Amino acid sequence: MASIRELHQQLVRKERSAVEIAREALDHIAQTEPRVKSFLTLTADLALEQAQRVDAKIAAGESIGPLAGIPIAIKDNMCTRGIRTTCASKMLDNFVPPYESTVTQKLFDAGAVMVGKTNLDEFAMGSSTENSAFQVTANPWDLERVPGGSSGGSAAAVAAGQCLVSIGSDTGGSIRQPAAFCGVVGLKPTYGLVSRYGLVAFASSLDQVGPFGRSVEDTALLLGTIAGYDPKDSTSLNVPIPNYAKSLLPDFRPKSKLKVGVIQETFGAGLDAEVEKAVEDALKVLQELGAEIEVVSCPRFRYGLPTYYIIAPSEASANLARYDGVKYGFRAPGENLLEMYEKTRAAGFGSEVKRRIAIGTYALSAGYYDAYYLRAQKVRTLIKQDFERAFARVDVLISPTAPTTAFKAGEKTDDPVSMYLSDLMTIPVNLAGLPALSLPCGFDRNGMPIGMQIIGDVLREDLVLEVAHAYEQATHWHVKRPEIAPD
Amino acid sequence: MSLSLDEVRKVAHLARIQLTAEEEEKFAAQLNNILTYVEQLSELDVTDVEPTTRAIDVNNVMRPDQLDRYTDREGLLGCAPDRDEDFFKVPKILNS
Questions:
Q1: Which of B23, B37, B52 sits opposite A417 (nearest CB)?
Q2: Cβ atoms A92, A76 nearer than 8 A
Q3: Angle ∠(A263,A266,A269) on CA atoms, nearest 5
């Protein structure tokens, strides 16, 4: 599979049909899925039906948009009407939503072809996709390693060429960290840019939906399709949406005085030496392209992780109270209502979800609220201020996406805090609500991809994408594919 | 700060999750590790710092107070683990 732009041209010129493209994706999924296990549900019939509709439009001489006929995978925490939506939890094993999320509705209206729903850490809580109640997804570059998480299925599906683009969600790094681990591009938009209507809630002050793609341009085209105001989401921003892809001109160079800030605190102790080297080399490339590099300090950056591990579980404990075995989802039998609740939640949730609900319940309980939740919200303000000060001086900020490349499955499952550390670099961005993208910037000695994070100021997705595109065009890391992917 | 087994049981009850004895032990240890880790937040002086409740400030969203009828009643009730015609069915609430 090529790029969105190339497939679009082939469709418009009638060199290939959308059904042919869909069949090719489905065939490749059939070949690779037993090894990669990206999908919880395959929607082959729907994909072919959607592709036929695109072909009918082309045959009738109607114009089609860039996403029409493009095979896409959707993280299984986005509600799809009539299609099982599990959040990789036993709790929602049999849940078939009676409504459509705004993001999938927009994609279907744009003619995108959904091949399936992808695996994730249960309720998006995790950094390796090993917390799925159903299966462990493999990293397409090394099947013994994790794809990252929580959107591991969506990242792996794009890396393995099972689809061209995909949708994930990012609460503390769940798009960017798997994008880095799988060698693809992933973008977490500004909080509120993309509607969360139909996204199963985890931590509502942090959750945001975003795109994965093989290239910056594909990612930009997908963002443009899903972004925009939605009256059904009260946190949705009512702002004009620029044409993100249009600004990625073929001969684009960063404006002469583009200032790139390097976050000092993300380098040093705990950072893998090969990751450090790759990001430093990337900075040199940006400098050669005309950017001015400046080291900036965000002194409270390192408090992002402990802040997150109060705020996210607290919000999760409230959001997940709805899984009570009454209106939908799983129910365990009980003698009375209370027993039914307790047994349903005991059997329906996995360990990490229970752990986070317990932490959140504790942090919000009487006597502890000020010491934990309120304090964390205040530290959140300090972290935001660090970013505000940095963006007064520079246009974008750069850091590694994750401190290491993809680790082996099973390596960190028994030590929650060590697992949490892989989100060290991404979490502060969610706390501040900023847009940030991860893109490939090299490989380590094991051949595993390394990711670089580009952070923008509020609603500066356009600038983040421009810088990423300029770097990508100068380096072409994204062209290298794992063996499992088709040519 | 250290979490006792009793506190773990209390939290589990508040969260309406039944834990096995083994889970109680494991959670007490793991939750203590997490709480020790977040202790570092007390290093920062947060006097006079306003809490951030949402990443990006959005003003209250208003809409006209108009009835918008939801039509897919069956679709919603059809998701229920147990129902009796148009009602969600649950086990008895009172023990008497």
A1: B37
A2: no
A3: 145
pLDDT exceeds cutoff 60 at A293? yes
SS3 A51: helix
Measured in residues, chain A has a length of 487
Peptide bond preceding A17: is omega within 30 degrees of 0, i.e. cis? no
CA–CA gap between residue A47 and residue A85 (Å, rounded): 17
pLDDT tens, position by position, A363-383 = 999 889 999 999 999 999 999
Determine, for residues A375 and B42 on separate chains, whether the beta-carbon distance falls below 8 Å.
yes
Closest to A177 measured CA to CA, from A352, A437, A432, A480: A437
A166 phi/psi in degrees, rounded to 5: -155, 170
DSSP-based three-state secondary structure for B16: coil
Residue A263, strand partner residues? A296
pTM strictly above 0.90: yes
Number of cross-chain residue pairs from A and B with Cβ atoms under 8 Å apart: 170
Rounded to whole angstroms, the Cα distance separating A126 from B67 reads 40
Q: What is the ipTM for the molecules in this complex?
A: 0.94
| Helix or strand (DSSP H, E) at A88 | none
User: A334 at the B interface (CB within 8 A)?
Assistant: yes
Identity of the amino acid at A243: N
Is A345 part of the contact surface with chain B (CB cutoff 8 Å)?
A: yes
B65 by Cβ neighbours in 10 Å (0-12 / 13-18 / 19+) ranks as exposed
* Strand partners of residue A473: none
pLDDT tens-digit profile of A204-251?
999 999 999 999 999 999 999 999 999 999 999 999 999 998 877 666
In A, minimum Cα distance to B31 occurs at: A359
> Is the minimum CB–CB distance between A346 and chain B shorter than 8 Å?
yes
